[in-house]
């Protein structure tokens, strides 16, 4: 069965992960997740202080070419070894994570629609749209509680790079979406539509329903 590849994009703190989690709860082992964040470029030659000053919200901060190769391999039915990124040290680790081909592959990240070659691999493109004030509050809570960042560093990074990069790259990429989902996984109507589409693919494979 050819996998159904679904891209889930949106700004930081928009609710992408919540949507992914809802789909995993529904379909479990039939879904594999490929996060763009895992493909941040390695910076082993830089000190922690130097890595902390980098712009992680620009497309150039990702090794998207490797992600494209891995996604092509998954689509061809091959197992890949996905990089692992450590937010605490702002760098890629030496570890990899084995990811096997599956019926459905979710590609998740803020900038996955910015690269044409990457987005052309996706069968369905979803953009999770949430107000900026809600997104920054969620990012602060996440980065302080889960990633060990200080409040000052989160706010400084948001103003210096996250906000301007969102306006320059993320928001414009919304025009490539097949479906814009306000509030992500909390949008029960959109969630049900997505679930029904995935369920149809899992049951019928490559057969497309009559319009």
UniProtKB/TrEMBL annotation:
GO terms for biological process: CTP salvage; UMP salvage. GO terms for cellular component: cytoplasm. ATP binds at residues 10-17. Residues 5-189 form the Phosphoribulokinase/uridine kinase domain. Keywords: ATP-binding, Cytoplasm, Kinase, Nucleotide-binding, Transferase. Transmembrane segments: none annotated. Pathway: Pyrimidine metabolism; CTP biosynthesis via salvage pathway; CTP from cytidine: step 1/3; Pyrimidine metabolism; UMP biosynthesis via salvage pathway; UMP from uridine: step 1/1. GO terms for molecular function: ATP binding; cytidine kinase activity; uridine kinase activity. Gene3D superfamilies: P-loop containing nucleotide triphosphate hydrolases. It is found in: Cytoplasm. It comes from the Bacteria. Its EC number is 2.7.1.48. It catalyses: cytidine + ATP = CMP + ADP + H(+); uridine + ATP = UMP + ADP + H(+). Belongs to the uridine kinase family. This is Uridine kinase. It comes from Evtepia gabavorous. The lineage of its organism: Bacteria, Bacillati, Bacillota, Clostridia, Eubacteriales. The gene is udk.
């Amino acid at each position: 069965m050819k996998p159904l590849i679904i891209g889930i994009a949106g700004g930081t703190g928009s609710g992408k992960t919540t949507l992914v989690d809802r789909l995993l709860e529904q379909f479990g082992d039939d879904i594999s997740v490929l996060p763009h964040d895992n493909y941040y470029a390695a910076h082993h030659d830089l000190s922690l202080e130097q890595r902390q000053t980098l712009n992680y919200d620009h497309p150039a901060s990702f090794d998207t070419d490797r992600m494209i190769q891995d996604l092509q391999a998954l689509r061809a039915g091959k197992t890949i070894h996905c990089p692992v990124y450590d937010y605490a040290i702002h760098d890629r680790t030496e570890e990899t994570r084995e990811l096997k081909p599956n019926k459905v592959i979710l590609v998740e990240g803020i900038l996955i629609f910015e690269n044409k070659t990457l987005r052309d691999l996706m069968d369905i493109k979803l953009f999770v749209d949430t107000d900026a004030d809600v997104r920054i509050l969620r990012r602060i809570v996440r980065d302080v509680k889960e990633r060990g960042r200080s409040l000052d560093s989160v706010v400084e990074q948001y103003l210096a790079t996250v906000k301007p990069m969102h306006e320059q790259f993320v928001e414009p990429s919304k025009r490539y979406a097949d479906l814009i989902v306000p509030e992500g996984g909390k949008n029960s109507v959109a969630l049900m539509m997505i679930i029904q589409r995935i369920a149809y693919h899992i049951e019928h494979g490559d057969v497309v329903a009559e319009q």
